[in-house]
Amino acid sequence: MKKIAIACQGGGSQTAFTAGVLRSFFDEDLHHKVEVVSLSGTSGGAICAALAWYGLLKTAQGDPTPIAQRILGFWEELAAQLPAETAFDDSVATWLRFIDRGVLPHFELSPQSAFVRAMQNFIPSLLPRHEFTDLKALLEKHIEFGELEGLVEPHSPVLLVGAADVLTGEMKKFNSRIGEISIEAILASAAVPTIFPAVKVKNHYYWDGMFSDNPPVQELIRMRSVGGERIPDEIWVIQINPTHCKNVPSTTGEILDRRNELEGNVSLMQNLEVIDLVNLLMRAGALSHDVLAKSGIKKTTPIEVRFINMSEEVAAHLDVVSKLTRNSGHIHELLADGQKQGRQFLEQNLTRPKAARAKRRHPGQISSAISNRRDQAQGRRRSAGPKRTKT
Fold it and tell me: Helices (DSSP H) in the chain: which residue ranges?
């Protein structure tokens, strides 16, 4: 059975798209058609990956709750439901867009400031549904963190969660193989420093994983992280941040959004270039078994990387505020697009004959494909080597 690793990029509320993709995967019983050996994620992607991973663990123990239902249930509760929640969310989104247009002034406030803390205490009194205002409580409602130790077995899939150590600068990957997955680890990965204070985990303080790996990819092929039997044949990356944009950003919001996208893709591109180099050397026969083993890679055949991206129609109207708003219509649009793109991806890569799938592959090496995205406006293209798929 083919071994698959799934990497989920972060992107705030936009990772509802990731949830839709994962829902389509498990609606189609992906875990019975391939071996899901590992999942990784950062920020909102870490939440999605954790929900899927927990569902796989529970299913392995005979729990009848569908994995897709677990993922969808979380996002349904995270979205604005009550009129007061919708009014609050819409008001904040409008206020932020006015700031973007220069209609209102912009103030930088620390999440640890007295004003922000006062607002964090005051807002829940206006919005009584606990799940909407308390991410920790919502996560604990959908994942029983206390039972994880008893669920994880030697053959279980591995979960890697990316975060950044504020003081040491370490690119931390919380690893389920060594019992590091906790509510604090997930919250740390999602701790955007302009919104949330650093999260303390065992005397270390962490910020959003966007500053480390978004998402962790390179570790998915290393024995030290996932074990020798979980090295994947393919890595499926659910990407939120677009690699290119059509126009030069001009407004404050556009500039911040594009900067966020570029920052979010830096580590991903670097990780992919490393995998591309390993694949190139494998194909050339330049790496012996001993060299690969010493490098922590127990594999002698190239690893294919495939991408799942939003539709152009949906991605075209997203802005920086769309990463923060939890308007129900917005969340459900992303969920639906994720489902659609996920189904198409599975059709192209699992149900079609191999020859037909090959025609749909993105030409060129992983590194060439990255360059193609970067240089698309100039029309430069390169090819040859391992291929990757994009829906």
Answer: 16-27, 30-33, 44-60, 67-78, 83-100, 114-126, 130-133, 135-142, 148-151, 183-189, 223-226, 252-283, 289-294, 312-316, 328-346, 354-359, 366-374
Q: Which residue has the tokens 């030409």?
A: 363
Q: In this predicted model, what pLDDT tens digit does every residue of 69-91 receive, in sequence order?
A: 999 999 999 999 999 999 999 99
Q: What is the model's pTM? A: 0.85
CA distance 365 to 279: 9
Strands 234-238 and 304-308: parallel
- Kindly state the helix (H) or strand (E) to which residue 206 belongs, with its residue range: strand 204-208
Residue 120: both structure tokens together: 């964090």
Q: What is each CA distance from 308 to 21, 252, 286, 292, in whole angstroms?
A: 8, 29, 31, 29
* Contact (CB, 8 A) for 234 and 37: no
Q: What is the tens place of the pLDDT at every residue in 133-154? A: 999 999 999 999 999 999 999 9
